[in-house]
Amino acid sequence: MMMPSTASQAAVRARPRIVLTRHGRPDLRLPRHVRPRDWPALVHAYDRAGICPASLPKLPLAQLASQCGLVACSPLRRSVESARLLGGTQETLCDELFREVALPHAPWTLPPLHPYVWGTLFRFAWMCGFARNGEDRAGAQRRADAVTHRLVELANERGSVLLVGHGVLNQLIAKNLRARGWQGPRLPGITFWAFAVYSSP
Hints:
About 45% of the residues lie in helices and about 10% in strands. The chain is of the alpha/beta class.
């Protein structure tokens, strides 16, 4: 059986990579119930929250980050602090382009439900075309296209890039990367510090 040459092995290792990860757990105590009209205040508090001190990236992710040529994040505090934990002294690119897709919401007074329930309902409504007070799907997809193009450029320049992103935007980016022929999971994961690696074709 013919073994791959050292040169071909090096070429595989040298393929540009993009790592998508979600930020760590925000340091915020959610209320037990929230009304839809109170959703903007909750989102504002969530966006201002830093990372819970006990929420630390697992070793495999930390090792991946140390090997990346660049760490990128959104300007939201939870993303910035997560990038600092992962990037250490590495160069960090912070860009508004990497913000999470804004959920729609409505000024209803009832019913009071747990924030996770309303978040799921609003996200499902967004997928069905409801975008009141949020970012519509077409706009989110255009931005995800721009993010994907930017990440591919950075990966080609730096060899690898890690984006400390957000749940929905990361899923859109992953879909775009796979459509471009990049190899990696269909979904990058939505839990805190979940990550996925995508390799160029």
